[in-house]
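Quick question, first post here. What does this chain look like in 3D?
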Amino acid sequence: MLKIDKLNYGNWIPRNIIAAFLGIFCISCIVSILINDSIVRIIVVVISVFFGALFIYMMYAYYLIGKKNGELQNQLCTTLLDKLEWDGQGKALDIGTGSGRIAINIAKRYPSSHVTGIDYWGNPWTYSKHLCDINAEIEGVADRVTFQKASAVNLPYQDGAYDLVTSNFVFHSVRVVDKIPLIKEALRVLKKGGAFAFQDLFNKQFYGDINLFYKELTSWGLKEVKLIDTSDFLYIPLALRVNHMLGNSRILYGIK
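> Answer (accepted):
Ran it through. Tokens below.
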């Protein structure tokens, strides 16, 4: 029996990264005081200022994403699910489920669905399968949601095993240079005629030329494929519109 505490979907900004920036800032400040060489001191001061600025920015981003009980994260989740063209019948897979937010919300939105959430769960995030199980229990959908450790690179499921596949800001963080195979792998386990919706940082940094990327997608024989800007449907604070945050957030969705 799970020990029920309270619902906790966490914050997308890992606190240990914020702590690391603060630590580097503090150490470099101390070193700049102790060092005698003026040139080296200038270099250390520049490093200190850089990481100090990063710390302040990350703290502000943490606040923006987490304020009002994670309202922005909830809105991004809702925006993704609103694009689904699915009747809610059958099995759904959420790739990179984190704290289980998308998987659980699918189960809540579609009472006839059975949902699997997979994640690799590890640094720098503090999410875990146990946290997902607790959230599902609190939300009242534990009987229809299963969580499993697995990699998005090589999903442990047969071709066409699912009626719906989703992913929310995951693919860009998977440690592979080419993201295209991740999309193909996600679609591999989706049955013909099934629905998909992937929200991610679909920008040049992670996917190359977006027009060429979309052109390749349309050559895969999908019944329907659309790529839309998240900001067309949801206000994203200016401070978060940078590449490694929510800059160029887009939703790729359609029917296989």
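The chain has two domains: 15-69, 82-255.
The two ends are 39 Å apart (CA to CA).
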